[in-house]
Design goal:
single chain; 66 residues; alpha+beta; 1 helix; 30% helix; globular
Amino acid sequence: MRRRTQTPVNFWQCGHLSPVVVEEDEGGKIARCLLCGERGPVREGSEEALGALRDRARQRDEAQSA
C-alpha cells in the first residue's frame, strides 16, 4: 500500500475551505481545519462554528493585505 505524504499548510495561508470537522466542546461546538489544525471559537451550532473559523481567516487575510 502506498503511503500518502502530507504537506503542512501554514494557517496564515489557509482559508479553511475543506476538510473541516466540527467537534463538541464545553458550551457548544468548535470547527477545526484538518489542513492546518486551527480551531475556531466555541459557537452554539455547527454552521456558526464553521462560519466563525472562516471569518477568522477572512479577517486575518484582510489585515495582511491592508
